[in-house]
């Protein structure tokens, strides 16, 4: 082992760096994620592997992952070594999938782990549906940058571990829906303008016909909350990685254009209603004493829209993205230092949101009202 | 509810079509939906098994050049058709016909044209890879207490190594 690998460090703010920098189109695109599915030659797929085989896959990966230039210093957590609250924290940051943390029978899977580098937001899930899921998350629209970094990590890892590859089918995956490139690129995009002008279904249908698919915030089968849509490529075989990325990039840019049009129509046709909606959302968030998650997300959507349209000067959209993560139940529990039931969580959430917004209001007052957006990330209390 | 199109699969997709200004709602199984150009992604929403059930008559029959079971992990061809799950990477080479049919449905293509992977160990010859795989399968068979399989595998290893 080497000093570039820390096993089971305390989970603090790892995986949240993407929130800190302003990024391209972040008034509409919240984040970009890209992942590659890879399997190691000579082993059955993870669901079909014995305990010893899963342990061997984890050992082989652990051996090499601390020395990868692309990842820098690596933190590694085995899911069975974390308590349920810690696993939920990683899940809420989209660093692990539900499948990595839990079997269909509700148990913690053997030898499943997350390795997270301190450079370039690169991570690897080990013994997920596939032996390896290489992934990265970025703020705003950054598909090309994310893909380039992930591609290089893949090259580095591929010379150290023997991947399962077939000349005809490409990179072999547990589910044939991922085979070929193993690439899934997705963009979390905020489309309140298209929802309010009732054009959203036309746009989503169009994307469907062009080979893209959409999901809610929490992936497959999840509901749409806060007007947030996760748009991704639907197929992984028969196109090059660059084509898949370019195609998504072109369509996302087009959707951004439609959303901007819808927003300007709203501003022109119904400025008072729009302003009222935005400030009403801000008002409720600033004063509520109990906030269910979904309600908060819908209100934050209004505030985010207001910030993008410069109806609200502060906070920055980064602060809104950070609130979306830190106001989830496991994060609130982590701050509270105890388990919270649903009612308690709603109360804690409301308090957290009030505190963040008050801190921003106060800093604005100190600097005077003409200073505009602060652009800083407020620390959670 | 049964699929409005084929009538023998469970409907999982609701398709709304507008034809001559008239709205039609169709309830379709994922296969018929795919054939109408609507594809839903992911293992839970695109049951490969469902697809295979439809394709079974075409590619699962006697004319198929596919193996009956994967000689590496033992996954049976019929089980793959039932569950849509492959047991190991080698299954792809064992059931190529059925996979090509599935992949054309799911991806609209069956040939990978993306990155090419060059093995980490270019000096590794095929017998060595086979031996390594047999060794792991042997360990697995012992762990699962399948001694008949273990004996078989040991014979195969001896054959490759040229020892009696």
Task: Write up this protein.
The complex is a heterodimer of chains A (381) and B (164). In chain A, helix 2 (84-92) crosses helix 11 and helix 8 crosses helix 9 (293-308). Chain A is an alpha+beta fold. Chain A contains 12 helices and 11 strands. Chain A is globular, with a radius of gyration of 21 Å. Chain A has a 9-stranded mixed β-sheet with strand order 1-3-4-5-6-2-9-11-10. A two-stranded antiparallel ribbon of chain A has the order 7-8. With 164 residues, chain B is mainly alpha-helical. Chain B has a two-stranded antiparallel sheet. In chain B, strand 1 (13-19) and strand 2 (22-28) form a beta hairpin. In chain B, helix 2 (48-59) packs across helix 3 (77-83), helix 2 (48-59) packs across helix 5 (96-107) and helix 6 runs antiparallel to helix 7 (147-161). Chains A and B meet through helix 4, strand 7 and strand 8 of A and helix 5 and helix 6 of B.
Helices, strands, pairings?
The complex is a heterodimer of chains A (381) and B (164).
Chain A: E1 5-7, E2 29-38, H1 51-65, E3 74-78, H2 84-92, H3 98-101, E4 113-117, E5 122-126, E6 132-139, H4 143-158, E7 165-166, E8 170-171, E9 183-190, H5 192-196, H6 200-209, E10 212-215, E11 228-233, H7 241-269, H8 271-287, H9 293-308, H10 317-326, H11 329-336, H12 342-367
Parallel strand pairs in A: 1-3
Antiparallel strand pairs in A: 2-6, 2-9, 3-4, 4-5, 5-6, 7-8, 9-11, 10-11
Chain B: E1 13-19, E2 22-28, H1 30-35, H2 48-59, H3 77-83, H4 91-94, H5 96-107, H6 126-143, H7 147-161
Antiparallel strand pairs in B: 1-2
What is the first-to-last residue Cα distance of chain B?
60 Å
Structural class assignment of chain B = mainly alpha
Helical content of chain A (DSSP H or I, runs of 4+): 40-55%
- Could you give a short account of the major beta sheet of chain A? 9 strands, mixed
CA-based shape of chain A: globular
Report strand order across the widest sheet of chain B: 1-2
What gyration radius of chain B follows from the Cα positions, in whole Å?
21 Å
Number of helices of chain B: 7
Provide the residue-averaged pLDDT of chain B.
73
Distance between the termini of chain A: 37 Å
Structural class of chain A: alpha+beta
């Amino acid at each position: 082992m080497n000093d570039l690998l820390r096993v089971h460090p305390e989970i603090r703010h790892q995986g949240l760096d993407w929130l800190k920098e302003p990024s391209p189109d972040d008034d509409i695109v919240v984040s970009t994620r890209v992942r590659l599915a890879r399997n190691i030659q000579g082993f059955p797929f993870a669901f079909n592997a014995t305990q010893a085989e899963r342990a061997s896959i984890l050992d082989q990966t652990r051996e090499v992952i601390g020395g990868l230039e692309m990842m820098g210093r690596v933190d590694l957590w085995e899911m069975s070594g974390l308590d349920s609250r810690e696993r939920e924290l990683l899940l809420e940051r989209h660093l692990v999938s539900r499948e990595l943390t839990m079997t269909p029978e509700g148990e913690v899977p053997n030898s499943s782990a997350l390795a997270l580098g301190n450079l370039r937001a690169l991570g690897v899930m080990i013994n997920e549906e596939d032996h390896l899921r290489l992934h990265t998350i970025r703020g705003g629209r950054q598909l090309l940058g994310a893909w380039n970094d992930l591609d290089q990590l893949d090259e580095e890892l591929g010379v150290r571990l023997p991947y399962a590859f077939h000349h005809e089918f490409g990179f072999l995956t547990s589910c044939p829906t991922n085979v070929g490139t193993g690439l899934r690129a997705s963009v979390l995009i905020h489309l309140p303008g298209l929802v309010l002008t009732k054009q959203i279904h036309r746009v989503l249908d169009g994307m469907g016909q062009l080979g893209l698919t959409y999901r809610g915030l929490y992936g497959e089968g999840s509901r749409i909350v806060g007007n947030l849509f996760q748009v991704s490529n639907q197929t992984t075989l028969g196109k090059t990685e660059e084509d898949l990325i370019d195609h998504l990039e072109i369509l996302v840019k087009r959707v951004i254009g439609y959303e901007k049009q819808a927003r300007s129509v709203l501003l022109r046709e119904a400025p008072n209603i729009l302003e009222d909606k935005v400030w009403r959302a801000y008002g409720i968030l600033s004063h509520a004493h109990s906030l269910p998650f979904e309600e908060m997300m819908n209100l934050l959507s209004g505030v985010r829209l207001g910030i993008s349209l410069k109806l609200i000067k502060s906070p920055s959209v980064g602060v809104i993205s950070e609130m979306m993560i830190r106001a989830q139940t496991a994060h609130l529990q982590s701050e509270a230092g105890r388990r919270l039931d649903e009612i308690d969580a709603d109360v804690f959430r409301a308090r957290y949101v009030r505190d963040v917004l008050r801190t921003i209001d106060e800093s604005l007052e100190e600097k005077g009202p003409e200073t505009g957006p602060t652009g800083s990330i407020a620390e959670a209390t | 509810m049964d699929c409005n199109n084929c009538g023998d699969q469970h409907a999982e997709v609701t398709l709304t079509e507008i034809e001559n200004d008239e709205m039609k709602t169709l309830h379709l199984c994922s296969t018929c939906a795919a054939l109408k150009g609507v594809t839903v992604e992911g293992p839970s929403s695109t049951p490969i098994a469902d697809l295979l059930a439809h394709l079974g008559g075409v590619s699962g029959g006697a004319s198929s050049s596919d193996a009956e079971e994967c000689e590496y992990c033992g996954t049976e061809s019929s089980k793959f058709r039932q569950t849509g799950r492959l047991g190991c990477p080698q299954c792809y080479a064992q059931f190529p016909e059925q996979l090509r049919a599935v992949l054309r449905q799911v991806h609209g293509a069956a040939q990978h044209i993306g990155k090419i992977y060059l093995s980490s160990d270019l000096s590794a010859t095929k017998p060595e890879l086979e031996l390594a795989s047999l060794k792991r399968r042997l360990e697995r068979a012992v762990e699962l207490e399948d001694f008949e399989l273990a004996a078989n595998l040991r014979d195969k290893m001896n054959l490759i190594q040229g020892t009696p």
